[in-house]
Amino acid sequence: MPDRSGPGFRARVGPPSRRARVLLLTVGVLAVLFLLFVMFSGLWTDWLWFRSVKYGSVFTSKLGAELGLGAVFGLLMALVVGFNLWLAYRLRPPLAAMSVEQQSLDRYRTGVAPFRKWLLAGPALLVGLVAGAAAAAQWRTWMLWVNGTSFGVKDGQFHKDISYYAFELPWYEFLLGFAFSAVIVSLIAATAVHYLYGGLRLQGPGRRASGGAQGHLAVLLGVFVLLKAVAYWLDRYALAVKSESFKNVDGWTGLRYVDANAFLPAKTILFFVAVICALLFFLTPVRRTWAPALIGFGLMALSAVLVGGVYPAIVQQFQVKPNEQAKETAYIQKNIDATRQAYGIAGADVQPYTPNDSTDADKLKQDAQTIADIRLLDPNVVSPTFQQNQALRNYYAFPKTLDVDRYGKQDTVLGVRELDLTGVQQRNFINDHFKYTHGYGVVAAKGNQVDANGNPVYTEQSLPTEGTLGDYEQRVYYGEKSPAYSIVGPGMDEIDYTRDGQPDQTSQYSGGSGVSLDNPLTRAAYAVKFAEPQILYSGAIKDGAKVLYDRTPKERVEKVAPWLSIDADPYPVVQNGRLVWVLDGYTTSDGYPFSSKTVLGDATKDSLTDQRGRTLTAVNKVNYIRNSVKATVDAYTGEVTLYQWDETDPVLKTWTKAFPGTVKPKADIPATLLPHLRYPQDLFKVQRDLLGQYHMTDATAFFNGTDIWDVPEDPTVNNTHDVQPPYYLTVRMPDAKEASFSLTTSFVPAGRKNLAAFMTVNADPGPDYGKLRILRTPPGSGALGPALTQAKFNSDSEVARQLSLLRSGTDSDVVYGNLLTLPVGGGILNVEPVYLVARGAKVPVLKKVLAVYGDHNVALEDSLDKALAKVLGSAVPGVTTPAEPNPGTPTAPTTPTTPTTPTAPGSNPALDRALADAQKAFDDGQAALKNGDWAAYGQSQQALRQALADAVAAGAKGGGATAAPSPAASPSTGANPQPSGQPSPAPTG
Q: Where does a domain end: 875, 890, 913?
């Protein structure tokens, strides 16, 4: 046999067999079909989801806009580029000049001749696809332009309605950019074809360009320059929304002196120069010379440098800088007015406030409700306590940051007991997606109370929950911690909760939401979507089964309203027998002229961002924002409802025209839900970020920057420079008649730590909802900012001693709760709860309360009552502050008892009389509390103390001490609270 391995042997490889070709073809077809199915499954499942939540019109409207824009502009780009390729080929010279260059190109021309049509059509189609995809992404710009609604406000420079900048100018700029792209691609493609076929030559004798090539390229260049002229004209209006850094404002927007007096006329001049230059290019085919056009183009470029660059620099250097304040004042004022209007801070009421270091009974009486409602329970700290006390099962969990709401007039801290699959002991496909599918119930606690052990006083607790919230559907299928997807339906038992030694409590979902999996094609699509093949063939999926997904409230609202930016903190509300999530939706724009721009992610970042999440928005840099929509998501059914909140917002009106029927009118908000709506945190944080500088409404003061405020850093968080978050509190501002549920924050002077201002916004729906009030402290007032307050606490020797004893005596860490700043009695009261966290348990327990009024008495006491009594005790005239004082909004004291044999009623008249006096004194004290009459309360407590002493004495004379009665306690702030300035009754008997 011949040696087939020798160097001279070449193996003959024949074509693949018919069977191999068929096999390869089959594999190729299957691969293409699979890729197409993957693409189809994403679109198909999206359509099914939108239809299941009854927002199919959003899907079709958005998809229609994307397909329409993609098709129109993709086709237009393909036609323009294809036409220029064809025209360049048609204008090729019949004979190419003989040269080495052309001889080399002949080989290429010969090689591409069989594929000429494909080479002409292919690039055009490819460019068309790219252009179509880019145009499809502009569906928001298109919808805003088509449905634009007038603002009814004109800008201060060109006197055009704001809608021109917000809705029209972006669309014109997109069209201009598209036209530029089409011309540039056509120019490059035409140049390549002309060169390939000899219309353009780099070597050889004679003209370097044929007449056809010269005319074609000259027209394209003329169109390019004409588009540049249009760009110069639009640039004039774009100056009103141009953003730069100026006077400590990174996003300063609008014209300045140099823009209005140099750039604006320069853009107008350049517009006319570009029009003339374009005409010279259009005349090139007629005159058959490039000279005039090239000279004109050179002059246009020189003009752009001199008129558009050098001249404005000269104006800035020699006119503006020598007298900048006078030149810029008018433009600064336009920026101030527009910014305050665009961010909804124009109505902020700034009041002077000189805080006192001491107060009196009359002033304190007005703030009785503020003191009574001081929130001890920090929702950012006590989540582990809720987890320890109320999760009750390993597979339930609470969010890291709890929520604050009002039920009645009680500030309440709430957390939803949500499903946490990491706590399931046996993790598998069935348990993860069929058995453990939902959370269960809400746990609520009073915001201004803790029990004797420092734990929350729960108003809704246990499993299933019971308490003051009444009956409601407790199963939570849609929440902030819900699994990616669950499969539910008839005959499929899901675990509600388990009880030791008893059968599992189960249920079957009947909420009506989800997408049916009865169709095998649908099951296959979801198997691809979730990358889980078991969905396709699992026998656990029965008839009528549905898949629930996209389950967090935020992503559900963002999906049905892709034009909204959603607040980072959805909060739960129990109303009308339902548990719903409430979300705040913002309409935004970056096209409000003269209004400075801000980055939402930066403005809303604080020390709790990692716990709460950050605002997500399609347009992150904005200069207009409104809380235009309140949205709800039912925790059981997943139903999404959008309610109009700002009835005057033109951006919302524009979007509701684009997506009709998706937003319900404000009048449809349920009466049971309305009291739970509140002013949103992220909007407030954006506004306070702007008000740090834009509280100055005078352009001269703004220019000099002598009164810039900063949001203070959070002093309770270690190793971070993040700012302090705002706090929901019930507080009375000095100009208000009564306290209201508000969102509060403080300011410090730039670069300093003392208090510059205190700001609130009324968060309760009603006539004053959204009213911003600012108390501005005068320079040198000595009011402590948060950092100085914390430093004062930390540097106090008695505080340090007590905290050291707590740490060493209990092997615990000290955690500071929210540092609350409140205007009380004409001064500034700072209160901070102190938690102990055992190193093993990691469960915060409130053990102490820090307080300081003004810059004096620092108190660290076991309860808020005692801390307030120490720092405010002198406000109650005629009462000596005790060694162990008690606080502000109290209950009756717990009377010590002496064990003895009870005396039968009626056998001791003196005792009966003393007990009657004690009861009357207690009733008088409760009445005084309700009226906020601190002096009367102090007198009633003295009478109560005397009556109890008389009762003990009468019992002793009657043959043995009797147990003095303890009148029933009323709700109070803190454990065993006492009124401000009143002594605790001494043990008697």
A: 875
- If one compares 855 and 229, the residue with the highest pLDDT of the two is 229
| C-alpha–C-alpha distance, residues 548 and 516, integer Å | 9
In this prediction, residue 855 has a pLDDT band, given cuts at 50, 70 and 90, of: confident
For 370, the 3-state DSSP assignment is helix
Asked if residue 410 belongs to a domain, the reply is yes
In the predicted structure, residue 779 carries a pLDDT above the cut 50: yes
Domain extent, residue 86, equals: 62-208
Given 849, 875, 901, which residue is the final one in a domain?
875
Are residues 197 and 223 part of one domain? no
Given the structure tokens 């076991």, which residue do they identify? Answer: 862
Is residue 822 within 8 Å of 729, Cβ to Cβ? yes
Instruction: Specify the pairing of strand 403-407 against strand 410-416.
Output: antiparallel
Per-position b or e across 846-870, b if 16+ CB within 10 A of its CB: bbbbbbbbbbebbbbbbbbbbbbbb
950 Cβ contact list (under 8 Å, min separation 6): 910, 913, 914, 917
Burial, 627: exposed, middle or buried (Cβ in 10 Å; 0-12, 13-18, 19+)?
A: buried
Q: In sequence order, what are the beta bridge partners of 571?
A: 582
pLDDT of residue 372: 84
Structural domain count of the chain: 6
pLDDT digits (tens, 9 = 90+) for 784-834: 999 999 999 988 888 888 888 888 767 778 889 999 999 998 889 999 999
Q: Are residues 502 and 438 in the same domain?
A: yes
Q: pLDDT value at position 916?
A: 76
Q: How far is the CA of 753 from the CAs of 705, 774, 790, 858, in angstroms?
A: 17, 18, 11, 18
**Which residue has better confidence, 103 or 856?**
856
Contact indicator for 804, 812 with CB cutoff of 8 Å: no
User: Does any domain span residue 729?
Assistant: no
Same domain, 575 and 517: no
pLDDT of residue 899: 37
The band of 17, judged by pLDDT with boundaries at 50, 70 and 90, is confident
**Mean pLDDT throughout 733-742?**
89
Same domain, 222 and 314: yes
Q: Is the dihedral of CA 35, 41, 42, 47 positive or negative?
A: positive
Q: Computed from CA positions of residues 56, 58, 59, 60, in that sequence, does the dihedral angle turn out positive or negative?
A: positive
d(CA 463, CA 455): 18
Contacts 24+ apart (CB under 8 A), 804-807: 806/836, 806/847, 806/848
Distances (CA, A) of 905 to 423, 563, 739: 58, 74, 45
Neighbours of 227 (CB within 10 A): 19
